[in-house]
Design goal:
The protein has a single domain, classed as lithium bound rotor ring of v- atpase (Four Helix Bundle (Hemerythrin (Met), subunit A)). It is 82% helix and 0% strand. It has four helices and no strands.
Amino acid sequence: MGCTSAIVFTCFGAAYGTAKSGVGISAMGVLRPDLIVKNIVPVIMAGIIGIYGLVVSVLISDNLSQKEALFTSFIQLGAGLSVGLAGLAAGFAIGIVGDAGVRGTAQQPRLFVGMILILIFAEVLGLYGLIVALLMNSKAQTDVTC
């Protein structure tokens, strides 16, 4: 369950961030096609959120065994939920900020720096979940018997 929740929730967040930012880039590209490549940053940052879930999911699946202690299973579930829900929140934030920021940058190019700063803080939310998940997963013991 931890492995599944890690990849599913982070991919939901990454998909939402990519879609929402992509809509903003498409709307902005009609009037200012010269800014499309410059404003692709929110889409890239949303894609990185999915990688966080992939990393934790692979680490959890590497430690799976047929006989496993309840403690280890709960730790792995907590690690998956930690990175998954943090990635979901980060993806929502990146999508909303990316959409509004890209549309605003088309009208006032000085908003680009502010948008990037806000996107960095939104990305860090997902990074917090990744760090907590890695710490939790390192505490999971595979040699415990029931």
